[in-house]
Amino acid sequence: MDMVTTKVIVASLLAWIGAHTNYTVPAGAPMVALVPHAFIAELACAEECPALGVYPDGNVVYIDQDLQIDTNVCAQSVLLHELVHYLQDRDGRFLNVPPAIRSRLREHEAYAVQQAYLASNGRKVAFGPSFYIGAFMGPSC
User: Fold this and answer.
1) If DSSP states are collapsed to H, E and C, what string results for 28-46?
2) Residues with Cβ < 8 Å from 84, sequence gap 6 or more?
3) Backbone angles phi, psi at 64, to 5 degrees
4) What does the pLDDT look like over 82-107, one tens digit per residue?
5) Helix extents (H) in the chain
6) 8-state DSSP, 65
7) Cβ pair 117, 16 in contact under 8 A
8) Whole-angstrom distance between the N-terminal and C-terminal Cα of the chain?
9) Which of 68, 8, 80 has the alpha carbon at shortest distance from 34?
């Protein structure tokens, strides 16, 4: 997938987030890097795990290179989830709560926005932090 397509998808997802949340869409957007699953697992979990994307702060979102974010709404929702984290950081969301609670609040919100995006695209998938990757990317999504 080329950079232009990726930028169009990111812009579209940010616009959707802006229209369905209280987040303001920034003029710029983070870079999206399509990387091997092992890279994401190491960043997200420091070991093998089912993570499909990760935003480790800064201006880069890492997405599993095997996801088809150009054609698959479920794969796009993974990117959208990570973009929510980007906007959370950009807006300083949840900085006033203890770190132990902050990560849960961040994930809860990102999953809620992701579920709303999927629902708006005709997908009814229940998931959360312990969701099994195979079920998510399977026929239900």
Assistant:
1) CCCEEEEECHHHHHHHHHC
2) 17, 21, 23, 109, 110, 113, 114
3) -55, 125
4) 999 999 999 999 999 999 899 999 99
5) 3-20, 37-45, 73-91, 99-120, 133-136
6) T
7) yes
8) 22
9) 68
Is 43:56 a contact under the CB 8 Å cutoff? yes
CA distance 40 to 55: 9
Q: Which residues contact 37 (CB under 8 A, 6 or more apart)?
A: 52, 64, 65, 66
Kindly report the CA angle at 112 between 94 and 59, in degrees rounded to 5? 55
Note the pLDDT tens digit of each residue in 52-74. 999 998 899 999 999 999 999 99
Of 2, 3, 60, the residue nearest 29 (C-alpha): 60
Task: Please state the separation of Cα 53 from the chain's center in Å.
Answer: 6
Tracing tokens 């990570």 back to the chain, one arrives at 82
CA dist., res. 122 & res. 111, Å (int): 16
C-alpha Rg value of the chain to the nearest Å: 14
Residue 32: strand pairing partners:
61
Token code pair at residue 93:
């969301």
Q: CA neighbours within 13 Å on the CB side: how many for 101?
A: 6
